[in-house]
C-alpha cells in the first residue's frame, strides 16, 4: 500500500474530500516536498507559502486554475522562461483570465476590480444584504430548516453580487440557476473546466455581461457596470471591452464559491462546537472572529498554484525555472510552527487575520471584504431568529460522528450539501412583508428564433442564434472563417454582429456585414 503522502492529490477522491491528513503526511517531510514520481513541489509551510505568494517576480500565477499537476504546453529552457510563458499563454487553462494574469496587465485590471470593494461601496451594498438576509433567515426559520448550500448559500451570494454590479432584476433568477448548476473550480468532472465551451457557465454569463456593458456605454446608470463600462486605467488608457466582460463574468461566477462555502463551513462549526452558538447569540460582535477562525481551519480554497519562471529559491531550496508549485493554503493555515494547537477551533485565537485563506500579495482575493460582510450579516440574522441550530441527524449523523460530503475539487473546500434544522426563538415574529420582498422568482426571457422573410440579420439576430442554426452558421463561416471557434465570440453571443462591430470595426466592416445580410436574407 502506498504511503499517504505518495498518493495523488489531484485524482484521489478520498484526499480531495478530506485533504488534511494528506497534507500532514506531506509536512512530515518538511515545509517543501516533492512527491515521488511527480514534477511539482508541495509547499505546506506558512512562511514558505508567504514567500511564494509575495514573490510575483519569480513566480507566475499562470497555472492557478489548471493546477500544478497539469503538463506545461512547452518545454522550459534556460534560467528565465517568462517569455515562453507569455508566448504560450493562450494554451493554459484560463490563461486570459485575471486570476492567471501577471505583471502589468494584472496590475492594470486589478486597479479596476479594486473599485468594487471600497468601504463606501460595501456600506451602500450592505443595505441590500441586510434586507435580503432578513428575508432568508425568516423564511428558513419558519420552515424549521433547509438544505443550506443550494437553498440559501448559492442564491444569497449570487444576488448580493448581482445587486453590487447592477445586474437587472429580470436576469437574476437565470444567473442563480446557472451558478447553482455550475461545477466548482478544480472539478474533476470531464470537460467542466473547459472555458472555451459555449455551454460553460462563464461563457453563458459572459454573453449577458457583454450586453450589459455595451448598454451602459450608451445608457449610463448609477451602478458598478456603468463604472466598468466607462473605466480607464491609471495611465488614462481604456481597457478592451472583452477584458471588462471577462473580469465581470469571472468575478460573478467563480467568486460565488468563496462566500457560499464559507457560509456552509461556518454553520458546521456553529452546530458542532459546544456552547458556540449561544455565545454568538449573546455577543454577535464575535461573529467576525468566528469567520476568521473558520477560514483558517476550513478556508474555501484549499490550494493555489504557481510556476517558477526564473531560477529562484523557496527558503533554502533551489527552485529551477519551470518548476510547478502546489501552494497548500489549507496546510499553511495549520502549520504548527505558526499556530498553537493548529487543528483546534479557538474563537479567541491571537492574530487570526494573518491566515492565508484568501491568499496574500498582489493576487489576494479581491472579494474577501464582500465575503466577510455578507456571511457575517446572514449569520447575525439566522442566530437572532433561532433558539437552536443543528444538523439533520437523519442526513448527517449525530454530533461527533457526522457524515458530511465535500465536493471533489482540487481547489475548493466546500460541502456539497448541508441539511440544517432550525428552532425559532420564543415569541419571534417570522412574518415577511411580501410587498417589499427582495426576490420573487422570475424566469429569464427566452430568446425566440426569427421567422419569415429576411428573418435573420446582423442588426437584429443575436450571434448565439446565428451560431446554432446550421444555415446561418455556414454563412458566418464563409464570411468570417474560424469565427465559430473563436472563444471571444462565445462571450458575445447575446449581442448582434452590428453591436460587436463597434468594438471590433477592423474585423466586422460595414461591407462585410452588408454581404452577410445579403446571404442571410436568402435563407
Average pLDDT metric: 88
Shape: globular
Integer-rounded radius of gyration:
24 Å
CATH topology of the largest domain: Cytochrome p450
Strand order in space, largest sheet: 1-2-8-5-3
Distance between the termini: 65 Å
Judged by helices, strands and strand pairing, the structural class is alpha+beta
- Helix run count: 22
Beta-strand percentage range: 5-15%
CATH architecture of the largest domain: Orthogonal Bundle
- The CATH class of the largest domain turns out to be Mainly Alpha
* Count of distinct structural domains: 2
Biggest sheet: strands, sense, closure? 5 strands, mixed
Low-pLDDT segments, ≥5 res: 440-453
Give the tally of β-strands.
10
What share of the residues lie within helices? 40-55%
CATH superfamily of the largest domain: Cytochrome P450
Report on this model:
By secondary structure, the protein is α+β, with helices and mostly antiparallel strands. It has 22 helices and ten strands. Strands 1-2-8-5-3 form a five-stranded mixed β-sheet. It has a three-stranded antiparallel β-sheet with strand order 4-10-9. It has a two-stranded antiparallel sheet with strand order 6-7. Helix 6 (119-143) runs antiparallel to helix 7 (148-165), helix 6 packs parallel to helix 16 (368-385) and helix 9 (201-218) packs across helix 11 (241-254). The longest helix has 25 residues, at 119-143. The protein is globular. 44% of the residues are buried.
Amino acid at each position: 500500500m502506498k504511503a499517504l503522502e505518495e498518493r495523488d492529490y489531484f485524482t484521489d477522491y478520498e484526499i480531495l474530500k478530506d485533504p488534511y491528513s494528506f497534507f500532514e503526511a506531506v509536512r512530515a517531510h518538511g515545509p517543501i516536498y516533492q512527491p515521488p514520481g511527480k514534477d511539482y513541489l508541495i509547499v505546506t509551510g506558512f512562511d514558505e507559502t508567504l514567500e511564494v505568494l509575495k514573490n510575483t517576480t519569480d513566480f507566475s500565477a499562470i497555472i492557478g486554475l489548471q493546477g500544478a499537476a497539469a503538463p506545461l504546453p512547452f518545454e522550459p529552457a534556460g534560467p528565465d522562461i517568462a517569455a515562453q510563458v507569455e508566448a504560450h499563454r493562450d494554451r493554459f487553462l484560463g490563461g486570459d483570465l485575471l486570476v492567471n494574469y501577471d505583471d502589468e496587465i494584472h496590475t492594470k485590471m486589478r486597479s479596476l476590480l479594486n473599485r468594487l470593494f471600497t468601504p463606501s461601496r460595501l456600506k451602500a451594498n450592505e443595505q441590500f444584504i441586510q434586507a435580503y438576509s432578513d428575508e432568508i433567515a425568516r423564511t428558513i426559520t419558519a420552515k424549521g430548516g433547509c438544505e443550506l448550500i443550494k437553498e440559501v448559500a448559492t442564491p444569497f451570494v449570487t444576488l448580493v453580487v448581482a445587486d453590487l454590479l447592477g445586474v437587472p432584476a429580470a436576469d437574476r433568477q437565470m444567473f442563480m440557476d446557472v451558478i447553482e448548476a455550475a461545477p466548482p473550480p478544480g472539478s474533476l468532472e470531464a470537460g467542466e473546466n473547459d472555458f472555451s465551451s459555449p455551454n460553460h457557465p462563464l461563457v453563458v454569463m459572459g454573453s449577458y455581461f457583454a450586453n450589459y456593458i455595451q448598454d451602459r456605454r450608451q445608457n449610463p446608470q448609477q451602478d458598478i457596470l456603468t463604472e466598468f463600462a466607462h473605466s480607464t486605467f491609471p495611465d488614462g488608457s481604456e481597457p478592451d471591452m472583452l477584458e471588462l466582460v471577462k473580469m465581470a463574468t469571472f468575478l460573478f461566477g467563480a467568486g460565488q464559491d468563496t462566500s457560499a462555502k464559507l457560509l456552509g463551513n461556518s454553520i458546521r462549526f456553529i452546530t458542532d462546537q459546544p456552547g458556540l452558538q449561544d455565545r454568538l447569540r449573546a455577543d454577535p460582535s464575535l461573529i467576525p472572529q468566528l469567520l476568521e477562525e473558520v477560514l483558517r481551519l476550513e478556508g474555501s480554497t484549499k490550494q493555489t498554484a504557481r510556476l517558477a519562471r526564473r531560477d529562484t529559491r523557496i527558503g533554502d531550496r533551489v527552485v529551477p525555472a519551470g518548476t510547478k508549485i502546489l501552494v497548500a493554503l489549507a496546510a499553511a493555515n495549520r502549520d504548527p510552527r505558526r499556530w498553537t494547537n493548529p487543528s483546534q477551533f479557538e474563537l479567541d485565537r491571537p492574530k487570526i487575520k494573518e491566515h492565508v485563506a484568501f491568499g496574500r500579495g498582489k493576487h489576494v482575493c479581491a472579494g474577501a471584504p464582500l465575503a466577510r460582510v455578507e456571511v457575517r450579516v446572514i449569520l447575525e440574522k439566522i442566530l437572532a431568529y433561532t433558539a437552536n441550530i443543528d444538523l439533520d441527524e437523519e442526513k448527517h449523523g449525530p454530533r461527533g460522528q457526522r457524515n458530511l460530503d465535500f465536493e471533489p475539487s482540487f481547489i475548493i473546500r466546500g460541502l456539497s450539501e448541508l441539511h440544517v434544522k432550525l428552532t425559532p426563538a420564543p415569541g419571534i415574529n417570522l412574518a415577511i412583508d411580501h410587498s417589499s420582498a427582495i426576490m420573487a422568482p422570475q424566469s429569464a426571457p427566452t430568446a425566440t428564433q426569427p421567422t419569415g422573410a429576411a428573418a435573420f440579420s446582423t442588426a437584429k439576430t443575436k450571434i448565439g442564434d446565428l451560431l446554432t442554426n446550421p444555415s446561418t452558421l455556414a454563412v458566418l463561416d464563409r464570411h468570417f472563417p474560424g469565427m465559430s471557434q473563436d472563444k471571444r465570440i462565445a462571450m458575445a453571443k447575446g449581442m448582434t454582429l452590428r453591436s460587436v462591430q463597434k468594438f471590433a470595426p477592423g474585423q466586422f466592416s460595414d461591407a462585410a456585414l452588408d454581404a452577410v445580410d445579403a446571404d442571410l436574407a436568402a435563407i
